[in-house]
Amino acid sequence: MGLASIASHKLGGILSVESIFKASIKIGQHRAKYRAKHQVPEALRILQEEEEGAAARKEGGIYL
How far apart are CA 64 and CA 61, in angstroms? Predict the structure, then answer.
Protein backbone atom coordinates (compact mmCIF):
# COMPACT_ATOMS: atom_id res chain seq x y z
CA MET A 1 0.00 0.00 0.00
CA GLY A 2 2.83 2.42 0.87
CA LEU A 3 4.80 1.87 -2.37
CA ALA A 4 1.66 2.25 -4.46
CA SER A 5 1.01 5.67 -2.95
CA ILE A 6 4.61 6.70 -3.68
CA ALA A 7 4.36 5.41 -7.28
CA SER A 8 1.14 7.32 -7.88
CA HIS A 9 2.62 10.57 -6.54
CA LYS A 10 3.02 13.20 -9.26
CA LEU A 11 6.17 15.26 -9.51
CA GLY A 12 5.40 18.79 -10.57
CA GLY A 13 1.81 17.72 -11.12
CA ILE A 14 2.79 16.07 -14.42
CA LEU A 15 5.02 12.99 -14.09
CA SER A 16 4.25 10.10 -11.80
CA VAL A 17 7.07 8.47 -9.87
CA GLU A 18 6.00 5.16 -11.43
CA SER A 19 6.65 6.41 -14.97
CA ILE A 20 10.10 7.69 -13.98
CA PHE A 21 10.90 4.34 -12.34
CA LYS A 22 9.77 2.35 -15.41
CA ALA A 23 11.81 4.59 -17.73
CA SER A 24 14.85 4.10 -15.50
CA ILE A 25 14.44 0.30 -15.68
CA LYS A 26 14.21 0.41 -19.49
CA ILE A 27 17.32 2.60 -19.78
CA GLY A 28 19.24 0.25 -17.48
CA GLN A 29 18.20 -2.81 -19.51
CA HIS A 30 19.17 -1.11 -22.77
CA ARG A 31 22.60 -0.15 -21.39
CA ALA A 32 23.21 -3.68 -20.09
CA LYS A 33 22.34 -5.15 -23.49
CA TYR A 34 24.62 -2.64 -25.26
CA ARG A 35 27.53 -3.33 -22.91
CA ALA A 36 27.16 -7.09 -23.31
CA LYS A 37 27.20 -6.73 -27.08
CA HIS A 38 30.19 -4.34 -27.23
CA GLN A 39 32.41 -5.95 -24.59
CA VAL A 40 36.19 -6.05 -25.18
CA PRO A 41 37.41 -9.59 -25.96
CA GLU A 42 39.57 -11.29 -23.34
CA ALA A 43 42.61 -11.36 -25.69
CA LEU A 44 42.79 -7.55 -25.79
CA ARG A 45 42.71 -6.91 -22.06
CA ILE A 46 45.83 -5.56 -20.37
CA LEU A 47 47.71 -8.18 -18.39
CA GLN A 48 49.02 -7.21 -14.98
CA GLU A 49 52.65 -8.05 -14.27
CA GLU A 50 53.40 -10.00 -11.10
CA GLU A 51 55.37 -8.07 -8.47
CA GLU A 52 57.66 -11.01 -7.72
CA GLY A 53 58.84 -11.29 -11.34
CA ALA A 54 59.56 -7.57 -11.58
CA ALA A 55 61.67 -7.62 -8.38
CA ALA A 56 63.71 -10.61 -9.60
CA ARG A 57 64.59 -8.85 -12.87
CA LYS A 58 65.73 -5.70 -11.05
CA GLU A 59 68.00 -7.64 -8.69
CA GLY A 60 69.77 -9.34 -11.58
CA GLY A 61 70.30 -6.07 -13.40
CA ILE A 62 68.08 -7.05 -16.35
CA TYR A 63 65.46 -4.52 -17.36
CA LEU A 64 62.95 -5.42 -20.05
Answer: 10
Q: Where are the alpha helices (DSSP H) in the chain?
A: 2-8, 17-37, 51-59
Amino acid at 23: A
pTM: 0.52
Q: Per residue in 17-42, pLDDT tens?
A: 999 999 999 999 999 999 888 876 66
**Helix (H) or strand (E) run with residue 62 in it:** none
Q: What does each C-alpha distance from 58 to 31, 49, 50 come to in angstroms?
A: 45, 14, 13
Residue 5 CA from chain centroid, whole number? 31
